Structures are given as structure tokens and as C-alpha cells.
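re: that complex we talked abt at group meeting.

here r the seqs, copy pasted straight from the sheet so there may be weird spacing, ignore it
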Amino acid sequence: MQLLRYAIYRFGTMLLTLLVVSVLVFAIINLPPGDYISNQINELRATGQASGLAKAEFLRREYSLDKPLWQQYMIWMGFMPGVHGFSGLIQGNFGWSFEFDAPVAEIVGDTLWLTVLVNVAAVLFVYMVALPLGILAAARSKTWIDYSSAFVGYLGLATPNFLLALILFHYGNKHLGLPIGGLMDPAYEGAPMSWGKVQSILGHMIVPTFVIGTSGAAAMMQRLRANLLDELGKPYVETAIAKGMSERRMLIKYPLRMAFNPFVADIGNLLPAMVSGSVLVSVVMGLQTIGPSLLIALKSQDLFLTGFILMFVALLTLIGTMISDVLLVLLDPRIRYEGRDI
Amino acid sequence: MKDLLSVEDLSIGFGRDPSVVEGVSFSLKPGGTLALVGESGSGKTITCRAILRILPKAAQLRSGRVVLNGRDGERVLSSMTEKEMRAVRGDAVSMIFQEPMRSLSPLHRIGNQISEVLWLHRGATEAQAKRKVLETFEHVGFPDPERAYRSYPFELSGGMRQRAMIAMAMVGEPELLIADEPTTALDVTTQAQVLGLIRQLQADTGMALILVTHDLGVVANMAKDVVVMHKGRVMESGPAEPVLMTPAHAYTKKLIAAAPAIPEPTDEPAPPPAEVTDPILTLKDVSKTYTMRSGMGRETLIHACQHVSLVLPRGKTLAIVGESGSGKSTAARIALGAELPDPGGQVMFTPDPGGETLNVHAMDRTQRTMLQRRAQMVFQDPYSSLSPRMRILDALTEPLDIHNIGTKAERRERAEEMLRQVSLGPDMLKRFPHAFSGGQRQRLSIARALTLNPALLVCDEPTSALDVSVQEQILTLLEDIRDRLGLSYLFISHDLAVVSRIADEVAVMRRGLIVEQARPEQLFNDPHHPYTKALIAARPEPDISRPIDLSLVAQGAGSPETWPEAFRMTNTEFPELSTLSPGHKVRCHV
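got the structure back, here u go
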């Protein structure tokens, strides 16, 4: 009951944060001088293509870009009626991409859920690798297991992702027959969901997941190892041993639970780091995630496309932090009962 | 009768270093009580852990045998495999540790952590284990066992947590309980109650006890046999009475002499108190109320300190005594201006006789600098109050640096002089704190407090982290410096014996209120308040013939709502502080 109340409260604060983020995003996009349309008008003028001017002017009016900035924001969000009435983010209209000359929804379309898919897979990969290796490294600290896992970890941290991507593509294809580039076979692109498409996507995801996840996994493993080593020196560990527990059972029940907090708290941080960190990787590997679109949109000052993608990443981050906060409350009674009468 | 446990010629060492425990032997009869006594570094803790082989990974058992001869027949613990050892731990032999705050996992319910012993050793089901645990809880004095079973450790007080630890050790019905400084981290009244509990459990179940402690008072109250250890070797051992009353070994004599004791009552009438004409520090009606917010807007008021009025005459020592949470540290923090009192309270500080008087909570910038220079603090834990990354020279000259006093050479000279003041050599300036023992570190923090030439020192439990013999030296040093440099002390402590030695006046606090205030002779000769009586009674004396009077402790240390009518108080209603005789005030209805 208390947990539910907390989750609802947390959801409320998340919406509020999202609102603040939207203001920031809009303000930051508008910080650099000029915008897509005026850039284009200038270019058209310079080349004397007067015919295009009319269209540009039309777009400017159509999307209320001739209005003051705060009104543009309100219209973009859908708090204020634009030329065609209320039609903003909260009404589900993501705007128009000038660069691609198509609705934003159409441009991002598939890439949205592919982004979520790749990144969730990478997060799971991080946890699946870091958890056992971190525990092992701590439990057998200062042995060859510890040293070799640290070595591999630092290697993972130090290798640039795009380089790792190229290496893995080369050898993965040569020895395991893994596909190169993309997130599915070109034949399935735009095709409706089918068993074949799922298989194709899964096969294509192996290398990207590995590439995007390695550095995160290495960092998290080291952190878990350090936390766990700290915990192993605590008196309650001694108490557990004095009870007659075996080392393995003790390790999992007590110190691991304690070392788990930062691990869980990281979910929120992992997501944005991966999305923004994987932009370059996505370009190199030709992944149809949101990354490449973001890069193009930023370069050409494509207002609505940039805005939408940034809002989407912010939403992912906030959902991640919300999940980790709620999980922390579940895991740690000290947080749960903070301020409760004793 | 055969021995339950015998330890023969035990030696333990680390790496290639000489052994830290060498040739230690002792034995224990079923139901007996043995005390391992020594200062920190004496090897007593390593010795007791070696019995259950709960040692740091790097420790090597170099020689010796540990034999347990109990209900499961004769077992040589020192040569058993790790797996066989696990069957002994928590079953035939169990252990309780020093820090009840940190010896329980904060993330698991108490009931779960204790039931675990039965799941491990008896293969009990959850329900069976719970029944047994609740029974044990009742035995160790939990008022509401069901509630305790569901609690998390952080919901219980220190004393209750130690009871939970004891319950954990007792639930497997051990033949031997090893208690490693079980009461060191507890208040003196709680300590008395926990010791009483262990003794009663022993009488009820007939288990044997090994008590590891540095406190001879605890030994006198608990043990039948004593082993005195020093630097890893046994100095003296034998029945408690001769060892404590007529010690043969010089080291034992030294330990007993160093133990601070509350003075014997005398019949001399106390001289009337002199009028205070030149107070250095005055607290007038100081209160501090904290508001604790919990969850959705609910607020609880916590009265950390209520109507505290104190006067510290120049050159004297005023002590505030009380258990943790009594408000003594809050009062000290307010006196130093580190915290604002509630409106109405006032703190006046007069650093120089006849000089300017500062209102500590309404100062301008220059006055604040003056306060910071003339009032200094000595902290409780010398291990964490010195930065491990600063050389002694830097630590000692830092205050001068901050206040921009003197040239580099002058600062260095000042630092050397300060070291001489605390009886350390100037050759130590280049070293780091880790090269010093606890006592030396406390000397260093005193030296640091002295560098700015203060008039007032606030000493916050300056000796409670130290061994008895070192404690003695630090107290002597503090007295010496006070008289030599004409300092005044505000001395915070939970230990009446320490206070009885150094203080000119004592204020006893409980729940944020001063309950009794007098000069030490008056207080010890003629305590009036039940809480003061409990504090005096709870103090274990290194004297077999003066055991702790538990009923006195229980009455005074209990909740203030249960005090006799004349003294009774609740959070918001309490009697006034009334003067019984000149200089002796008690909070009671007259």
C-alpha cells in the first residue's frame, strides 16, 4: 500500500520533471542562431530560387515559427492552439521534419522501439555479465580470477566502441556467420512482424548488444567488486559466519544484498548513457535506432525532430530512474521506513 | 569434572611477522565463566576468535590445540575442516560481538536473521523456528517479541539490538558463549542491564561463558576465572578474586590502578560554593527543538535540549553527563555556536577576564573569528579526527594558516611547542597519523586544539575511545594543561568515574533536561535523583565485593514516566530544577 502510494507520487514527480525537461529542450534547441527554415530561405535567396521561398514561408506559418518563442513552445507541446487547433506532443502529433520533409512520427517510426529493444538488451547484458563476474572477483579477490576479470574489464573500458564493433563484425562474420550491420535483414524492413523477422532481428542484435554493453558491464563489475569487498569487512558478515553459514550462502544473502543498492540505482543512469553513447556505434554499425536520426537532426537544426528525440531520451531516462527508485524502496527497508515512527 | 574447552599453547601470526598471540593456554569447565582481559593489541580478540576460527584470511594458526568436549563428545576444533567447523558455530559454541549497531544486517528482519540459526543447525521449519525465537526473545527481555520478530535492526535501540544479538547466540542453546566486548559500545546503564541478562541466562541454561573485555569492572561482576593478556602473552591467570584483589603481576596491578573509580562516600561536609564572579561561558535557558518530518507532512517535535542553564567559571571544568540521546552533545554544539538555540536561549562567552563578552548567536564577523580562535574542541575519536593524508606538522599549523598567524618558521616553532605541551617530541612533526597509537593521537588532537591559544576547550568524550591506562594519562594531561595554561573545560562524557576525577561541577542530563547538578563530592556522596543513582550503581567496579545493584539501575534508567512520583516526567511536563542545598540542584517536586 505504502509502496503503491510512493509509486504514484514518484510518477507524478516524473511528469513534472518531464515538463521542465521539455522547456529546457526547447530552449536549448533554439539557442543557436537561426533555424532550419530561415537557413533555407537564406540559401534559396542566395541561389535565386524564388519558387521555394513561398513553400518555406508557408511552412513557417503552418508551424507557427513566426510567433514568439514561448508561443511556439506552447503550440509544440499542445497547450495552445496552433494554426490547426490543439495539435502538439500531448495530442500525439510529434511535428514535421523539415530535413526529411515528412512527419516526425514517420521518420522515427520503427526506430523508436528498436532503440528501446537494443538498449534494454544492452542493459540486461550489462547486468548478466557484471553480476556474476563482480561477485566472483570480490569473493576470490587477489587471485588470478580477480586479476584476469579486471584485465578483461579494463580492456573493455579502454577499447573504443566503434573499433570493437568493426572487429566483432569482422570475426563474428568470418567464424560464426553473424550478419554485418543493420538490425534486420533488408528484406524484412518495413515488412509486418513475423517469426522470420524476429529471428533476423535477434541474430542482428548479438554484436550491437555486446558492443554497447561492454564498457558499461566492465565499469559496473568493478563497482560491484569494490562495494562487495567493502561489505565483506563489515561486522554483520562475521555474525553470519559465527552462525555457521557457508560462505556462498552468506555472501548471497547478506553482503550482496547490501552491495546491490548502487547496482539498482544505476538503471536510470545506464539508459541515457547508452542511448547517447551508442549514436556513433549506431552510425558505424548501420543500426536503425534513433541515434543516426538525432545526429542528422542536430546538424541541420531540424527543430521538431531534434525536440522529439531529446524528449524521448529524457522519457527513457526518467522511466529508468523511476524503476530504480521503486526497486530500491522494495529492496531496502531503511529507505522504506525512513521517517516512520519507531 | 572434565573441561568443556581447553586451549593449549595457542600461537597465531600474520605473514612472516612474529606471532601476535603466543603460547596462550587456558581451560574452562562446563558452566564456568572466564574473562580474557587486556588492552587493545593484547591479542585477546584474536584468541577468542581462534576458538571458532573466525580469523582474518591472512592469519595463521602457528601452533596449539583447541579442544571442545561437550554434548557431542571430544572435538579438536583446531584441526577440523571448514565444513565441520560450520556445524559447531552457532550450535555448540556461539558468539556475540562488540558493535550491536553493525553486527546485524540492516536489510533483513531480526526474526529472519535469528531463525536462520535454527534453519541451519536444526533443519527447523519457518514456523518451528519462529516459535523458538519468540520464546528466546521473551527470555532475553523483549517486551513485545512478535513486534521484535518483525523489526529491522535500525528500529531498535543499541541495548535492544544487543539483546537481539544475545538471542541469536542463545537460540541454538550453546554450551559455550563467547562474548567479545559485548557492552563496550553501550551506555553504562544499558551495560549493567545486559551484563545482568547474560548472567541470568547463564544461571538458567548452564552454559559456559568466555568474556573478552578491557574493563576490569565488568570482569569483577561476571567472571570466576581471569586470564590477563598483554602483547599476545598471558601475564596472569587464575580465579577472579585473588587476581583482582591481590594481583601478583605488575601489569595486572597497573591495569587495576588505572581503572577510574567513583570515589567512596565520605562524611566530610561539602564546602559552600563560591559566588561565580568571572564566568567564561554562560548558557541561559537554552532549548533546542528539532522537527522531524515523516512521510506525508506529519511532524514530530524532538526536544533535544530543554531549558539548559549552566555557568562555567574561569579556570574550572564543567561536565555534562548523560547517555546517548540525552542532549549533552547538542548543548555543547550550541555553546560553540555550531547550532542556533530556540528563541529565548542565550550563550555568553567571555574569552578574557574583564574583556568583551560575546553573545555567541548574535556575532559580527570579527567576533566570530574571535570565538573560533578562543574556543576549541577535542573530539571523541582520535582515529578519525586527524586527516590520514596530512603530516602532523600540517595538521598542527593548519589553524594558524587559516587565521593567517605568523610566518612559516614561527608556525613550525609553535607546532613544536604544542607537541612539548602534550609531552611528544618535535621529531614527530614529519610523520603521518597512522604512525601513532590511539593515546598519542589524542595528544595530537589536544595539541591542535591548543595552537590558537584558546581560553575554552570543549572536550567531547575525549577518552571514551581509549584503553583504561591511556585514558588515565590523557586525563592527567588535560588536568595539567588546564592548570598550566589557565584553560576552562566544558567536558562531555557518559562516564561518571571519568567526570568525578576532572570536573568541578557536574550536570546530569536525561531526555534533554538537566535532572541533577552538583559538585562531584555532593553528587557521589548524596545523589538524589533516581537516574543519578542508577548511573552510579551501574558503573562496574573492579572490586568483587561491590557487584552492580541491578534493581537500582533498572529503576533509574527506566523510562522517566516510571520514576517515583516526585521525579516523574514526560516529554512536555516535568518538575522544576530546585536547589536542595547550596550548589546542589535536583529536578523534583519538593
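couple things i noticed - Residues 36 and 300 of chain A are 6 Å apart (CA to CA). The mean pLDDT of chain A is 83.
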